[in-house]
Design brief:
262 residues, Cytidine Deaminase, domain 2, five-stranded mixed beta sheet, 21% helix, disordered C terminus, Cytidine_deaminase-like, CMP_dCMP_dom, APOBEC/CMP_deaminase_Zn-bd, tRNA processing
Length: 262
Amino acid sequence: MNIATYIPPGEQDPNDLAWMREALNMAEEALANDEVPVGCVFVKGGNAIARARNRTNEWRNATLHAELEAIDHLLPTHPAPLSSITLYVTVEPCVMCASALRQIGIGRVVYGCGNDRFGGCGSVIDVNSSDRLNTHPAYIAEGGYYREEAIMLLRRFYMSQNPNAPKPKAKATRVLKTDFLPIPTTPSSSRPPSTTPTSIKRNSSSSTPIIPSSGDSTPALEIPPSSSGSITDDFVGSLDSEKTILPIGSTLASTPVPGPID
């Protein structure tokens, strides 16, 4: 049973939406690099301290989800528990990532759309809140922030064609639609106040503040509804057989490292 928590649009904090827009920017970068478009930002005290995107295809490593990519660079300077940190991620963390977040003692997770196949924050398994785990305490996980934009990014990814795939699928005849399943209705929870997104720096070598983006939401695209009915359009969250897989280490010199940035 799906027990994920979704916050109605009218109750969503503007600060949370601003940070989610930053996570969407990272997801857009992933999409531009033929990765499953998931992006995230870790925030502490009003500052982004790490951000990342999926790199599973780039490094041929199914564990390099956005959350784990950021955690690798975050822990050396911010050791667990991370109870004062909020993670903003465009898609509900999978079971693997939700477990990792529980183990590092994350304080709160805010996500865009649900992950009906592998969600670890209530859509499939409630790793974030289960009392069967004896690691760090349960953490708050709330979805629905720019949900449709997050879904559209995933659908745009799965509409793409790759003639170099082992078994390429013909997708040219697919018609984009704007249909979305209704957002699950859940009671509002008691939530801690959001951090105010100010004085962000993207990396230590830049002195230019990066302020969360604002403006209209992503334009609606036409997209076919998922054959399974999943609101994330059959999201797989790991290596995708239809995407170009780069040799390991092929972009080592040019790949920016999303390390601590405060």
